[in-house]
């Protein structure tokens, strides 16, 4: 009987560890994607600075239609950067690295171990 209990406890612990691994992997994947979007926003912000600088140079040097075209491109990059940043920030706020189901399951297991007849 003791060997059966030991085997059951061992199997239970292994199952809980596997559940925790799965939960952490899922949340880490979400965090990675959100961080990637924030990185994309940083790159897009860099392009905004470059395009804005080029726009100012062309506008001051020539004051021709090409400057307005560069200004439009800069505005488009600004919108892209804003969308990536907002989306990435929102997704990053939704990441929860605490394995909720595992914690809940461990609480239930502890309660069962204290009162096996319930």
UniProtKB/TrEMBL annotation:
<keyword id="KW-0472">Membrane</keyword>
<keyword id="KW-1133">Transmembrane helix</keyword>
<feature type="transmembrane region" description="Helical">
    <location>
        <begin position="66"/>
        <end position="85"/>
    </location>
</feature>
<feature type="transmembrane region" description="Helical">
    <location>
        <begin position="35"/>
        <end position="60"/>
    </location>
</feature>
<protein>
    <recommendedName>
        <fullName>Phage holin family protein</fullName>
    </recommendedName>
</protein>
<dbReference type="Pfam" id="PF07332">
    <property type="entry name" value="Phage_holin_3_6"/>
</dbReference>
<keyword id="KW-0812">Transmembrane</keyword>
<dbReference type="InterPro" id="IPR009937">
    <property type="entry name" value="Phage_holin_3_6"/>
</dbReference>
């Amino acid at each position: 009987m003791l060997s059966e209990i030991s085997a059951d406890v061992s199997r239970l612990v292994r199952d809980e560890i596997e559940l925790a691994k799965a939960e952490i992997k899922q949340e880490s994947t979400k965090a990675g994607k959100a961080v990637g979007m924030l990185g994309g926003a940083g790159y897009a912000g860099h392009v905004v600075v470059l395009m804005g600088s080029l726009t100012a140079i062309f506008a001051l040097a020539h004051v021709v239609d090409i400057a307005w075209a560069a200004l439009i491109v800069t505005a488009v990059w600004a919108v892209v950067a804003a969308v990536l940043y907002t989306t990435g920030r929102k997704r990053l706020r939704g990441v929860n690295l605490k394995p909720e189901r595992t914690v809940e399951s461990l609480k239930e297991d502890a309660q069962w171990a204290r009162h096996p007849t319930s």
